[in-house]
Amino acid sequence: MQRTQTDGADYFHKVVDCQWACPAHTPVPEYIRLIAAGRYADAYMVNWKSNVFPGILGRTCDRPCEPACRRGRVEDEPVAICRLKRVAADNKGELNGRLPTPVSTTNGKRIALIGAGPASLTVARDLASLGYELTLFDGEAKSGGMIRSQIPRFRLPEEVIDEEVGYVTRLGMELRLGERIDSLKALLAQGYDAVFVGSGAPRGRDLDLPGRREAAANIHIGIDWLSNVSFGHIEKIGQRVIVLGGGNTAMDCCRTSRRLGGTDVKVIVRSGFEEMKASPWEKEDAMHEDIPILNFLTPKAFTHDNGRLTGVVFEKVRAEYDAKGRRRLVPAGEPDQHFECDDVLVAVGQENAFPWIERDIGLEFGEWDMPKVDPVTMGSSLPNVFFGGDAAFGPKNIIWAVAHGHEAAISIDRYCQGLDASQRPAPGVTLASQKMGIHEWSYDNDISNDERFRVPLRDKAQALKDVRLEVELGFDKGLGYKEAQRCLNCDVQTVFAEPLCIECDACVDICPMDCITFTDNGPEDELRERLKAPALNLDQDLYVSWPLKTGRVMVKDEDVCLHCGLCAERCPTGAWDMQRFTLEMTHAGSSCPSR
């Protein structure tokens, strides 16, 4: 193998698995250390810079960082990264002028933002301080998009939305709320220098089954129903409720139903339990509230009596796999099952709706009637029109919308400066030694086997009485500190200096994970097999040195290293050092070469 090139942005970034997995590349270990130090406002601002909505995401994020967490490789559960974000938000206190304020002069460029959801708000946050004249359109009376309309208040209190959306809207922009865009052609004719489309995926999929029209009064589209609950238009539901679908929206629907009068609420899914799209913790929360989840049942018909819904007929199915492992659901051969109910909530997916985008303006559409969007620049076939969030690639989650917003803001800035949006500014990288003495480091490297702490919940009987009463109480400062201590600080890298190594193998002897090997070089597949502990995760790179004096190379398996620093403490020559890796993601702004 060739010597590992560690001087670029990606090598050590990929070792910080949580940050690598986060679409917005939030520096997770950094803000967790700040929480452990009681510096909550500092931790909040680290989050705010990258993910814009720490208090919102600390309650609702889909947590792509947590499955990647290094702690999950040595214990059953990862660090509660998401809920620690909430600890920073809940305890930040006054931010005392840390947030930017509206600029006094503009740069003369006008940008229209369609939809006031997380993608558009991120674009607005990044461009406002650069002097762009921003106009934010949304059909609803309040900004926030799906954050406000589709996430139940018992998961996300409205005051948290108001606070964090307000941090953005107060930066100086024209809010055209209650004003729906019905024609992109007409908007472009108003002379905006660029347009960003962050309109979400506003249409829930329906089921065209027998009885759908006859029983329509009690069959509701899940996302529309949740929006009506959020805005106070719906306050009750029947006692017997069936929720169709296995995603997070279905979990929100069933839990909301329990709070609006549903005493017999079921989630019925055509897939198996493990294949459901809902996050594991969302399913756990539903079952904690006494909501059964029934699997491998496909709806066939809605039953009704004189226009009144009486139930749903289901066919039992089973999974069948072909030679390539592809699954299909086939009838199980059992009798159909009929479940009685008063209301049905259909939560079987969302789709985009672009009737307001004319097809003769040069904007190309592709599969599923979706606009063709560049996944790097977020640009469309019209050079001044950009997309982000669910409007770009279909339904995902808030953190992806934020990531899209950051990239689109860079593109809009470069486009307005007459530069090529495909040329992306490189992120900044620093490595700084954490050495404070021969055996001391500036970070806590004590490794302990601590199980994940559970987030306290409100008493179930009390929680189910009020659809606006937050059910998760969050970590207090004490529990937040204990959970923060589980972080393995994987942004503090083990950095090896070949000229200082005397090949004494002391680091090999002391490594608790057997992840360091001094051996003859060879092809990667063969080398991985003969390390002290075979390196089986091909997605994680090996750290390979230059040839040493004996001709051997040092090989470290980054996958299992705990970043404990014992190798650096034990090394008699200082060939190993613990150096903190900092990735400075480039957003639209002063670090961008366009300025």
UniProtKB/TrEMBL annotation:
Q: What is its EC number?
A: 1.3.1.1
Q: What class of enzyme is it?
A: oxidoreductase
What the protein does? Involved in pyrimidine base degradation. Catalyzes physiologically the reduction of uracil to 5,6-dihydrouracil (DHU) by using NADH as a specific cosubstrate. It also catalyzes the reverse reaction and the reduction of thymine to 5,6-dihydrothymine (DHT).
Q: Which cofactor does it need?
A: FMN
Q: Which UniProt keywords apply?
A: Flavoprotein, FMN, Iron, Iron-sulfur, Metal-binding, Oxidoreductase
S-adenosyl-L-methionine in keyword set: no
Binding partners and assembly: Heterotetramer of 2 PreA and 2 PreT subunits.
Q: Which residues does the UniProt record annotate as the domain 4Fe-4S ferredoxin-type?
A: 491-521, 551-581
The cross-references to InterPro entries, in alphabetical order and at most eight, read: 4Fe4S_Fe-S-bd, 4Fe4S_Fe_S_CS, DPD_II, FAD/NAD-bd_sf, FAD/NAD-binding_dom, Helical_ferredxn
- UniProt cross-references to PROSITE patterns, sorted A to Z: 4FE4S_FER_1, 4FE4S_FER_2
Recorded catalytic reaction(s): these are: 5,6-dihydrothymine + NAD(+) = thymine + NADH + H(+); 5,6-dihydrouracil + NAD(+) = uracil + NADH + H(+)
The identity of this protein, by name, is dihydrouracil dehydrogenase (NAD(+))
- MF terms in GO: dihydropyrimidine dehydrogenase (NAD+) activity; iron-sulfur cluster binding; metal ion binding
Q: Check the record and name the SUPFAM superfamilies matching this protein.
A: 4Fe-4S ferredoxins, alpha-helical ferredoxin, Nucleotide-binding domain
